[in-house]
Amino acid sequence: MYRVLIAEDQTLVLGALAALLRLEPDLDVVGTASNGKDALALCQQLTPDIVLTDVEMPQMTGLELAAQLSERGLPCKVMILTTFARSGYLRRALSAGVRGYLLKDAPADTLAAAIRQVAAGGRAIAPELALESWNAGHDPLSDRERQVLRLAGEGKTSSEIARMVHLSDGTVRNYLSEAISKLNAGNRIEAYRMAREAGWL
């Protein structure tokens, strides 16, 4: 039996995924979480074989969850299941140690087969994403630039961002300015939109 934990912030999707996977004789859904922070706590408690997670979730994204699991040396393998067919997300996911990346419109039997493949030590990447990633441009943003740009795109001021990430106002403005420059954007909102569309946030 492969033990699976599902992290998904949309309640209906979470319930449907759990119900579908429980129909498989060799997959055991041992837990569910509606945000990345709760998923991390459950992973430490339950040590599942597979963590099936969305990219965008409250409190901690699926990519941040994958990075945290890797940093803490937890043995569970991470698979992304998302609506975002963006090569930037795939590249960041692979850098974070993610072993599978599928789109939510994949058939249920494809998902189950991918979970088995990843649990057995392989990879499972949606073919159309793998091809797009090969042809896509490089993500120019640093982790800090990505962090402050995401918060700026959510409407936070430089002062609010500084308090949230424990940096000075000037340092936050420098990171934003660098991100804007790297993306050849006119301002922080345009930079946020460009980076989001590329899948870099």
From TrEMBL:
SUPFAM superfamilies: C-terminal effector domain of the bipartite response regulators, CheY-like
InterPro entries assigned: CheY-like_superfamily, Sig_transdc_resp-reg_C-effctor, Sig_transdc_resp-reg_receiver, Tscrpt_reg_LuxR_C, WalR-like, WH-like_DNA-bd_sf
Gene3D superfamilies registered for this protein in UniProt: 3.40.50.2300, Winged helix-like DNA-binding domain superfamily/Winged helix DNA-binding domain
Transmembrane residue ranges: none
UniProt keyword list: DNA-binding, Phosphoprotein
Residues covered by the Response regulatory domain: 3-119
Phosphoprotein is among the record's keywords: yes
Residues carrying 4-aspartylphosphate: 54
One Pfam family this sequence matches: Response_reg
Occurrences of domain HTH luxR-type (ranges): 134-199
Entries under SMART domains matching the protein: HTH_LUXR (SM00421), REC (SM00448)
The name this protein goes by in its record: Response regulator transcription factor
